[in-house]
Amino acid sequence: MIDPRPVGYVIGLLVATLGVIMLVPTALDYAVGNGHWMAFLESAIITTLFGAVLALACVNANGKGRGLTLQQTFLLTTGVWLVLPLFGALPFMLGQPGASLADALFESMSGMTTTGTTAFVGLDNLPMGTNLWRGILQWLGGLGIVIVAMIFLPVMKVGGMQFFRSEGFDTLGKILPRALDISTALIRIYILLSVLCVLAYMGFGMGPFDAILHAMTTVSTGGFSSYDTSFARFQGPLEYVSVVFMLLASLPFIRFIQLAQGDFRPLWRDPQVRAYMRWNLYAISLIVGYELFANANADLSALVRETTFNVVTVFSGTGFASVDLSTWGPFPFVMLIVVGLIGGCTSSTGCSVKVFRYLILIEAVKVQIRRLQSPNAVIFVDYEGRRVSEDVINSVILFFTMFILSFGVLSVLLSLTGLQTKTAVTAAWTAIANVGPAFGPEVGPTGAVNGFPEPAKWLMILGMMVGRLELLSVYVLFMRRFWRG
């Protein structure tokens, strides 16, 4: 029988911490004279007290140095992304915009999973504290998913992530303190990238509040904005600034740690990094070439800038938009859907399937073709000069299978709520892949899904959580054998 108390202890501490962080937008709204600060204070008190009581109730089971069992690790990862968004939604219900439970939880889950789809309209008129809280949720979610990807998923052997176990830290048993070391290093890198992004945005003309908010949602590849028009308000050089940091945030954070230690080689040699940069360049070039072919008189500089920004924002899963993507032709639109299904690198804040899995799949296909040509040859899948075990390959193939099935099932279920086919498919795409934008007649002019039926919002909430946690780490909880563990 699994003892849930160590899991409850950790979740309690995280919930209490979230409550304390709510004091930041509380102070902001109080400082600017907005009475909305009372809603944040009330939410902070409720959240902090609940987290503290939960942690205290489970503290005796936390046994020093014991670490977590594998089953407890699965419970913890899912529990964090289930419980924290619930409390993160409180300020949206108790204060402005006075959202329903479905809309508030949708916004909070979209934030913490760094999906970026919004259920709110009139963002320009929301209190500064509310918009800041949306940015904080994404910033915390981005940091959290990097830590989970580098520390927990390799141990849980989800989707081939066990291949990176030697690069990360074993979080079980006696080696648990080393996980704290890598978490500390990650937090430092994450904060440094965020500060640099703030300074870069301000250096190119963005105001301090906008710079802080958009830096948090850029580095987390989340894409929330304080404006209904998203990044269209900042068209120009700021788009290139955003591209730089979206790309950086989509790269493996372990490489930044190595870079900070003075070792440049791993970043340059990483197949994921090279492939990710190439594929972004290919997509941008194909769309620019297509548009120039369709309209030879197009403004080349504006075309390159808009295409680069919007391809990178979808590829990384950030979800900003500087133009109405639904007006792009069929070929560019399909290209955006494809890159959104690839996503960033593993151990980054990027979303979707991840470049690593595509590289493994491509190499596995090549090996199978070579084996057909030379049945007696001894050929193995190779990655980074290391042999990839059958266990990793099978995990990757299983992940692809479950991703496609989940995407298909969610699309069908969303269509059954009354959404049109295009809307249902892109809504499933944005939820499972945590990409951001949705397209279709039911999507509002600002890209908000506030007009969706409530069942569709609940389905997307589930899809966002499952997609962010790499599918299998959630699905395993529904297996009877897991609970017998």
TrEMBL record:
The chain crosses the membrane at residues 7-28, 40-61, 73-94, 136-156, 185-204, 240-258, 279-298, 333-356, 396-416, 458-478. It is found in: Cell inner membrane; Cell membrane. GO terms for molecular function: metal ion binding; potassium:chloride symporter activity. Keywords: Cell inner membrane, Cell membrane, Ion transport, Membrane, Metal-binding, Potassium, Potassium transport, Transmembrane, Transmembrane helix, Transport. GO terms for cellular component: plasma membrane. It comes from the Bacteria. InterPro entries: Cat_transpt, TrkH. K(+) binds at T114, T115, G222, T318, N434, V435. It is a multi-pass membrane protein. Low-affinity potassium transport system. Interacts with Trk system potassium uptake protein TrkA. Belongs to the TrkH potassium transport family. This is Trk system potassium uptake protein. The lineage of its organism: Bacteria, Pseudomonadati, Pseudomonadota, Alphaproteobacteria, Rhodobacterales.
